[in-house]
Amino acid sequence: MDINNLLKGVRCECGKHHTCDIDYVYIESGAINHLSEICEKYNNILIVADENTFAAAGEKTLLALKNKKTERVVFSGKEILVPNEAAIETVSENLKDAQIIVGIGSGVIQDLCKYVSFFHQIPYVIVATAPSMDGYASNGAAMITEGMKVTYPAGLPVAIIGDVDVLKNAPIEMIKAGYGDIIGKFSALNDWKLSHLINDEYFCDYIYNSTYEQIESTLNLAEGILARNEESIKTLMEGLIVIGIMMSFAGSSRPASGSEHHLSHYFEITGIINGEEYFPHGIDVAYSTVITSEIREKLLSQPFGDKIYRLGKEEYEKKMQEVYKGVAGGCIDLQNKIGNYKADRRDIYKQKETEIKQILAEAPTAKGIQEMLSLVGLDIKEFYALYNKEKINQGILYAKDLKDRYTVLWVNYDYFGEERE
């Protein structure tokens, strides 16, 4: 797919004119050299990175901007950077007379720059240091504010720089994370189609099919990814960018983020709350896709019942406090606002049981997902070794409460509730 042609937009059969306001995408060897032309009209530049990402691409970035006045915010690389209020303040207070932000990094640096750029109305460029996630071209910034994982509507970068000379040398776990993030789209797309059926949510065949094409092309990359082959890394990065553009086309992360992402957010948030280790985002997404496939298989194995599972108010709030502690209130307030727990979907489940199960059956099996992940050395045993059974089961039940999005996690809860515990 020609990315720069895609950026011109698509007048779609769904009735929308899809757009993505990014000026430049360069994914090639030596791509960082384009920074000099991209930033030609800017004299004062704020560079944002952490110690690891600056080590990967900082000197090349400074060389490309050698005639400019640059200031730097370089976070520690020894601890996981959390995109929270403290990080936002650190970047914001260093803006001063900056005319553009140049972020050097991947997920967290990208989201942090995107958020600050949008709320201070200053353009930004991202110099990617790993093909690890699909958010480079999306218009949402995934932040952790008040302890909650919140995706804020935000602007897009002026340019995305994917220098293959940098990307191919990223930590192998980050490269595997990008592969895993794309495999997770099997789950996300299935959830989108499910919500379209159950809730009449907006759906676009063009976006769905374009995203699915990226999954299929990624499956052929495994061997090359492990070998750090330049063409494989380039294709992986292109796939991640295209999926990000599809999110911008859709106006939300819906084509790329569903139940598997909710589980990954649950592991991240509870990890931060409890001071526990968690996997890089894309790897958590990959392993969580195995879990969501198991849920679909369970739903396919038996007829839908006549009862909807619900805890009483006090018991539900007690459970949420156990799981989310200090951020439980935010989750409860979100679900009260949306009204998911008040919704009684028994009639629509029974009326559309055949169609629902047809959709669920379209997703790969858990065994199939495991086989795809094994191609890049991702073994589900690592997942179970890090997260115990209780933690995983709690995630299956309550990861849905972190977001306002309907997914297969709701069907599972409606019918099986606490049964898995």
Features:
421 residues, alpha/beta, Rossmann fold, Dehydroquinate synthase-like, alpha domain, 2 domains, 6-stranded parallel β-sheet, two-stranded antiparallel sheet, 21 helices, globular
Question: Could you give the topology of this structure?
Answer:
Blueprint: H1 3-6, E1 10-11, E2 17-18, E3 24-28, H2 35-38, E4 44-50, H3 51-64, E5 69-75, H4 85-93, E6 100-105, H5 107-120, E7 124-128, E8 140-145, E9 148-153, E10 159-163, H6 164-167, H7 172-183, H8 185-199, H9 205-218, H10 222-226, H11 230-250, H12 259-274, H13 281-300, H14 313-324, H15 328-338, H16 346-351, H17 353-362, H18 366-374, H19 380-386, H20 389-398, H21 408-416
Parallel strand pairs: 3-10, 4-5, 4-6, 6-7, 7-10
Antiparallel strand pairs: 1-2, 8-9
Helix pairs in contact: 4-5, 7-11, 7-13, 8-17, 9-11, 12-13, 13-18, 13-21, 14-15
How would you describe the overall organization of this protein?
The protein has two domains: 3-171, Rossmann fold; 177-420, Dehydroquinate synthase-like - alpha domain (Dehydroquinate synthase-like, alpha domain), CATH 1.20.1090.10. The N and C termini lie far apart (45 Å). The protein contains 21 helices and ten strands. It is globular. Helices cover 54% and strands 12% of the residues. The strands form three sheets. Strands 3-10-7-6-4-5 form a six-stranded parallel beta sheet. Strands 1-2 form a two-stranded antiparallel ribbon. The chain has helices spanning 3-6, 35-38, 51-64, 85-93, 107-120, 164-167, 172-183, 185-199, 205-218, 222-226, 230-250, 259-274, 281-300, 313-324, 328-338, 346-351, 353-362, 366-374, 380-386, 389-398, 408-416; strands at residues 10-11, 17-18, 24-28, 44-50, 69-75, 100-105, 124-128, 140-145, 148-153, 159-163. The protein has 421 residues and is an alpha/beta fold. Helix 13 (281-300) packs across helix 21 (408-416). The mean pLDDT is 94. Strand 4, helix 3 (51-64) and strand 5 (69-75) form a beta-alpha-beta unit.
